[in-house]
Design goal:
Low-confidence stretches of chain A: none
Structural class of chain A: alpha/beta
Number of helices of chain A: 10
Shape of chain B: elongated
Radius of gyration of chain A: 22 Å
Order of helices and strands of chain A: EEEHEEHEHHHEHEHEEHEEHEH
Helix content of chain B: 55-70%
Largest sheet of chain B: 4 strands, mixed
Strand content of chain B: 5-15%
Helix content of chain A: 25-40%
Low-confidence stretches of chain B: none
Oligomer: heterodimer
CATH architecture of the largest domain in chain A: 3-Layer(aba) Sandwich
Shape of chain A: globular
Strand order of the largest sheet of chain A: 6-7-8-3-9-10
Strand order of the largest sheet of chain B: 2-1-3-4
Chain lengths: 287, 354
């Protein structure tokens, strides 16, 4: 059985009297993308900060690649890549200089800077200073910086927040490639489409607690309704019928409607991740 | 802490520093101040009198002038060339010493002496060169001056203001390069969030702070040394001067690091430097106003770095005369290390908690 790249047990953190993370437990295997889905202030970023050694947990245990996060072991940082929500690049340095500098910190003598920039579509701008980059380009730089050391574990904090659909899609493709390479990815997002598209498993986090953790399919099946909506032409109007798939005789009913010359559309009515989140927490993902 | 990582961060800071207008301004300011003060109080734009000599007889006068400080001597072979240079104001005056001139003077003859004065030369330079030439000829003849000049110091004796201002200029070089540059560099890393990015790489806070301190120390050493050289205060014992400047730069940079660690943003950083300004600047005032009780200057931390520079570079003393001051300066620097470390850890936690 594959050892988890990230293993977290009952991890807690407080900002003063405010308990931000209340005893969460999960693991992420190599090559797996775990989506941390929750609204702002749910504890997603704090979890990443603990796992990357930026803050020390108040209690609980966590290991990344077998290294205790409380041990302040530089081997931990040497094997991880972090993409912050805040865009923290050296604006007075070029794209290539930024990546080369970070590569040098990891002791990489011949960094594949241009190859990485090519992957994120910035090779043409390699010599341009980052201050001239758009928001989307800076975000792609952030992602490429996280990849510079070919990390075994990637922590991505809202990597597509506020970006246009084209840039978001490009970044998602790159994240998927990193997971295919074998990196364990912890992805925080409040974008249910992103979580659904990228994640092998999804953890719903709310008020510092994981309220559900499973594959997207299982979550939808567990918390959604198994029904289809059938739309049929009726005179000059349209008639809708909802068929519960669990009901007796639903298959025959569906077959009958499917054969009808008045059939317009058939839609499955699985629950969205947001609907499940609302059902579980009573609040939306944008909060 | 890793020397390799410290070097990587330092190299990055040195590479991108000159791209920042603030960084450039901090480098330029002490030089600009030197120029302004030199224009106001003299020396840089007050060159030595320039004398040209065509000596056809290996005169003793030429040898005497060659050994004099304060006169710039040019030896020429050709009389016409001498005249041309004086006419063009490349020389203030030109003297033609024919063959056998010394012998003629000592034998009591009264040989002709051609002395050309440039029309555009400064009156003070003309007088200095004329009087010097006449004195030397009188010496050659073996006669003494017809009068005895009794020199009486009138007014307060002391160093000229241009010399007493040297500590002020050096202070600015140290503050700008040693305090502002590491401080503002660290604050910028905090403001841009790049410090957090560094800290999730193999680099630790100790590597980053050491790199910033080294940046300030190196730049402050270069700036202070260059400022002293510009003010002709480097002296002959430049190695000793360099040693006291390095100690001064180390302490300045440590203070800059402390301010930079403590300040949350640029506004706070500038506020702190402004607020601490008089506290830091105060010891230099005691060099401008030597009649003030000098013991008060010792209450201020930068006295312990300004005084060794003053004694060793300006006054031409040696390190052994200022060992106590140097020990105190090094002691303050070392004592600040744990303070910076403590503040840095707190700030790191605050930043992560944002």
């Amino acid at each position: 059985m594959t050892e988890p790249a990230i293993n977290v047990e009952d991890l807690r953190f407080s900002y003063g009297d405010l308990e931000a993370v209340k005893g969460i437990s999960f693991d992420v295997k190599p090559g797996e993308i775990l989506g941390f889905l929750g609204p702002n202030g749910a504890g997603k970023s704090t979890t990443i900060k603990m796992l990357t050694g930026q803050v020390t947990p108040k209690s609980g245990k966590a290991q990344v690649l077998g290294i205790d996060i409380a041990a302040d072991d530089p081997n931990l940082q040497a094997q991880i890549g972090v993409c912050f929500e805040e865009k923290n690049l050296y604006l007075n340095m070029s794209a290539k200089e930024n990546l080369d500098f970070y590569a040098s910190l990891f002791g990489i003598k011949e960094p594949e800077t241009m190859e990485i920039l090519r992957r994120v579509g910035l090779a043409e701008r390699a010599k341009d200073r980052v201050h001239s980059f758009s928001k989307g380009m800076r975000q792609r730089m952030m992602i490429s910086r996280a990849f510079i050391n070919k990390p075994k574990v990637l922590f991505l904090d809202e990597p597509t927040d506020g970006l246009d659909p084209v840039t978001s899609a490009s970044i998602r493709k790159t994240i998927k490639e990193e997971a295919d390479r074998g990196a364990a990815v912890l992805l925080t997002t409040h974008d249910m489409f992103e979580a659904d598209e990228l994640s092998d498993r999804i953890a719903f986090i709310n008020d510092g607690e994981i309220v559900a953790l499973d594959t997207a399919e299982n979550l939808k099946q567990k918390y959604g309704t198994r029904s289809v909506k059938v739309r049929l032409r009726e005179g000059s109007g349209v008639r809708e019928e909802h068929i519960e798939l669990a009901d007796e005789g639903s298959s025959a009913k569906l077959a009958e409607l499917a054969a009808s010359p008045d059939l317009l559309t058939i839609h499955t009515e699985e629950a969205t991740l947001e609907a499940i989140f609302i059902e579980l927490t009573g609040r939306g993902l944008k909060g | 802490m890793s020397p390799r990582l410290t070097w990587k961060v330092l190299r990055k800071d040195m590479a991108i520093g000159p791209r920042s207008p603030l960084f450039l301004w901090m480098i330029v300011l002490p030089f600009a101040l030197t120029l302004i003060l030199q224009v106001a109080f003299g020396s840089l734009f007050n060159p030595e009198p320039r004398l040209g000599i065509v000596d056809d007889g290996d005169s003793q006068i030429t040898a005497e002038i060659e050994g004099m400080e304060g006169i710039s001597l040019t030896l020429l072979d050709d009389t016409e060339e001498l005249k041309t240079q004086v006419e063009a104001n490349d020389l203030d005056a030109g003297l033609i010493l024919p063959a056998g001139f010394d012998e003629a003077v000592t034998s009591g003859e009264q040989p002709d002496l051609q002395f050309y004065i440039g029309g555009e030369s400064l009156s003070s330079n003309r007088i200095i060169l004329t009087v010097t030439a006449i004195d030397l000829i009188r010496e050659l003849e073996g006669s003494t001056a017809p009068v005895t000049v009794d020199v009486v110091n009138f007014g307060t004796t002391g160093l000229p203001i241009s010399v007493r201002l040297v500590p002020v200029i050096v202070f600015y070089a140290l503050v700008m390069a040693g305090i502002f540059i590491p401080g503002s560099n660290l604050v910028e890393e905090k403001e841009q969030g790049t410090l957090m990015a560094l800290l999730v790489s193999p680099a630790k806070i100790g590597d980053v702070l050491t790199a910033k301190w080294a940046l300030g120390t190196v730049l402050a050493t270069v700036m202070a040394t260059a400022t002293l050289a510009l003010n002709q205060a480097l002296g002959g014992n430049w190695l000793q001067v360099l040693a006291v400047v390095v100690v001064a730069a180390s302490l300045s940079s440590m203070i800059g690091l402390l301010i930079g660690t403590f300040a949350k943003d640029s506004a706070m950083m500038f506020g702190l430097v402004k607020g601490l300004g008089i506290f830091l600047f105060a010891p230099t005032l005691f060099y401008i106003f030597p009649e003030w009780p000098q013991w008060i200057a010792k209450l201020f931390p930068l006295y312990w770095i300004i005084e060794p520079i003053w004694q060793v570079s300006v006054m031409g003393g040696s390190i052994s005369e200022v060992w106590l001051e140097l020990v105190v300066a090094i002691g303050i620097t070392v004592a600040l290390i744990p303070v910076v470390g403590f503040v840095a850890r707190r700030v790191q936690a605050q930043m992560a908690a944002r």
